[in-house]
Sequence to fold (169 residues):
Amino acid sequence: MKKRLKAKRQNRKSRPRGRRGARSGRSAPRTSSLRRRTSALDVAVIGAGAFGGWTAWHLARRGARVVLVDAWGAGNSRGTSSGEARILRFAYGEKSIYTRWTHRAREIWRQCEAQWKVPLFEPCGMLWLLREENEYYRASVAAINALREPWERLSAAECRRRFPQMAFD
Fold:
């Protein structure tokens, strides 16, 4: 068995490579049709949601040749980051890196809005309801305060006054 494998390897080495009729003494490398179609790309990003879209966009801004692929197309209603009711939130408990990333992402959204003259982000606020303070709340507030993001704490009575459509029992 070992002798057969060795003979096959030697035969492969001695065979001429490349296409017939290649110019000069060197042979042209064999290229599959898939490789020819994708050779102009550096990166394929699979999934055109928020993370995939931003990844592809940032790579392209840095000069990479990128294709963005999604089973349902970019901005489809099946995506977890698509649709009209998506939010940017800043509360992630002790995972404050996400708070910082959200803060930075919103800055980039605003820069893109100004550059492209297209509204991308509609600030509307967020109502976060808790029965009592906990560690998640305290860590979230610390991260939000570190970025000097505005927020306010409301009593149940203030919530009832400002949001009469909701029951705060």
